[in-house]
Amino acid sequence: MAIVLIFNICLMLVVSGADSCFIPNNLNVPVPRTIPEGYEVTKVELADCDTSSVHFTLKDPSFAIKTNGAIVALNTVSVATSGRTFSVWAHRDGGPESEMEVHLFHRELQKREYKGEGFLKRSKRRWGPPPIHILENDSGPYPKQLQEIVSDSERNHKVYYTISGPGSTESPVNLFTINKDTGMLTVHKAIDREEFPYFVLTTRVFDVNTNMETDLPLDVKVNIDDMNDNAPQFAGLLQFTVPEHSKPGTTVGKVNATDRDQENTDHVKIRYTLLDGLGLFAIDSQTGVITTVTNTLDREAKDKHMVKIKIQDLDGRAAGLSTTGTATITVGDINDNPPTFKETTYAATVNENEKEKLILRIPVEDKDLINTPNWISKFVITKGNENGNFRMETDPKTNDGLLYVTKPLNHEQNQKVRLEISARNEAELSNANAQWLSIPVDLTVTDVDEGPEFTAPTIRFTVKENIANGTVIGSYTAVDPETKSSNGIKYYKASDPASWINVNRNTGELKVANIIDRESPFAQDGIYNITMKAVDASQKTGTGTVIIQVEDVNDNMPVPHTGELIICEKDGELGSVLVMAEDKDQSPFSSPFTFSLPPDNDGKWSLTRFNETAATLSPTKKLLTGLYTVPVDIKDLQGNGKVQTVTVRICKCRNGVCLAQDRSVSLGGLALLTMLLPLALLLLLFLLLAFFCVTKRDPLEPEDQGDSAGILLPSNTEGKGDEVDPSIFIPPAQEQVTKDLKGGWQGTKSSSTFGAQSTHENGIYKGGANTFASGQYQFGTRHESQYVDHAVESGFDQRYLAQDSTFLHTWQTNGHYLHQKLAYMGTEEDGRYADDIVHCYGFEGVGSAAGSVGCCSDYGDDGNLDFLNTLGPKFKTLAEVCKKT
């Protein structure tokens, strides 16, 4: 699309007052690629402005501007593809100077290829138009025509134009419009550059008849030129702090300002100015940094300064817009004032023997900032407190000094005390001309009736242990501080933990009352303390301490450590154990010890020295596992000692512990009851058997039930009897049964009961219960424990059979039935209880690695008694009780 830009260049005079004339910021001029000498590029015409009072200047050496505003070339100039730019300045007499950038550009020819009749047509190149410039906030009138856009396709088509984009079809809508027939671009109202710095409008051309585009779309940029319509504004709070007495040139702070106008122009070039406070502060006109100009700032005189600041654009020129603000400059505190006393001297009274008591309050004043290290006071006693009787503190609320007496004073020794107290701050002084102040304090110590005082707070006596009772070790007396006399003073023990000492109430003499033992827990490192109390006639008391240094004597012999010593058995090694001893005495009555075996030892053990308090005990030959007692003679350095017994256990170990001990466990109360329960049940069984033995047995009287067959009654049955077909049982001959009963039967009425013949509902005979001495039968039940054919021979009394032939018949019949029933139940047919009977198991064969587990197996080591070593601690204790001493 070829665009013909019609320039109506008009420099609008924006009058501020009536003295200023302004021109647009930018001017775009189309020129040939080569500009000949004398060629008039353009002419600057000023509308509504007196041109005679306006002066133009141009600094490009290739061009010049005439007084009428015409720009001409001084020589031949070639314009590059990117164009050429230079500036023109216009100013009135006494008015501000305005700058305008002139952009020179040339048309580019563009070749197009057309596919047609076999040859190329050369078409006119598309020209990229320069941006359109509109001055912001232009007063109009509106609508205002900007530029006509024309497409070369008008030659061949009847066309119409459209635009789209921000400012047209997008927000802000309908700000720009285009005449669809002529292509004239029009703006309809003033535009604020700070809101919309530019617009890019997309222009399209269409055929009226076909509505088809006849040329390529073209983007037209509309720049909104800035005018100085925004005054600068302060950014951030205008609050600063500077320490008092700061040196001149000290930075106070920086004033920040912003301007909404276009960057990199005079519209945003701000100048900073102080309107007051010039005697104390200064401000850099370009950066806005505030500094001090004097060192006389004094917080105690004035802690805040209010300074007015003006910021103006156009670098402070008269036409620039300005804003003023007030900065608050706070003067910071330094410790330039020491605390001062309100009085020149202080006096106070203190009673003797008083301690931890406030005796004087000392107020001070400080001009520095309250509750800061520059104001908070701390007091130091510089003189008179060599014995540490006093201390100073600070009242956190009032900042006063508080004088305390910490250790009691003695009126008899010192009746007057003079102190010197200095008042300081937590922070060091910053004023070289100031120094810390001090004040004298006079104290009077008043006399108080005191109790007796011992001749010394503590006294020490050295006493040998085991000294005889009644031995005098010394005396400890007291005197009255006022009279310096001991008359009428009584002495008592306030504490004597072991009751080793008696004290004479009248004289303070100390005697031994009980055996003094240096190794006693009441003596710490041989030191034993007694607290004494002295009481005068007025019942006032005084206390003192008696320190008894107990000297050691050789009254203890070395003793080996108690407990068993373990030697673990190892193949090819005899093993050893360390015998350690301890002596409560001190050197030279203690170690090094002498270890030896007595002359009458059995030769099974050897003893060698290990260190001063231990020796190594080892067997001389392989010994059996077990517990051994070894006599060892242990003596101290002075030869005091005796033969003592050491217990050694030789055993197989796991992790250093004997296996027997490793397996041993302690039984609780519930376990012991569990062990005793079988004993109780066994005793109960014995009582029951005795009861049966003493009970008289009456002969059985079996009932005659006629010819009907009877069986034994079920006794202690576990369940219902099995249903058996009675037709399978064939009664045997009476002679055969009689023959089987040749051994007799020793039964009793109490142990065998026979019932009348009856028939079970399942067809099985049942009768009374019968208990045999061997075999333990329960007839008629599901479970038969055993069946022994010679049951009658083992105790059945034949006398009962002789009494009644009916009874004999019943017995014979029952025996035959039981034989057949057991055979029937022993089969596996029809799911019978084939496994619920006694089975005979075959011989397993030979070659078992485990050996026989029967009752006739040989015990491999009948004579080995090593099992005694694994019986556990309880059996060991029992063995020690039973052992002969």
Describe this structure in words.
This protein is mostly beta strands and 885 residues long. It has seven domains: 1-130, Immunoglobulin-like (Sandwich), CATH 2.60.40.60; 131-227, Cadherins (Immunoglobulin-like, Sandwich), CATH 2.60.40.60; 233-332, Immunoglobulin-like, CATH 2.60.40.60; 340-444, Cadherins (Immunoglobulin-like, Sandwich), CATH 2.60.40.60; 453-549, Immunoglobulin-like; 559-663, Cadherins (Immunoglobulin-like); 726-831, no CATH class. The protein contains six helices and 57 strands. A four-stranded mixed beta sheet has the order 2-11-10-6, with no helix packed on it.
Give a short overview.
8% of the residues lie in helices and 33% in strands. It is mainly β.
User: Gap between N and C termini, in Å?
Assistant: 135 Å
Mean pLDDT: 77
Question: What would CATH call the homologous superfamily of the largest domain?
Answer: Cadherins
Portion of residues in beta strands equals 25-35%
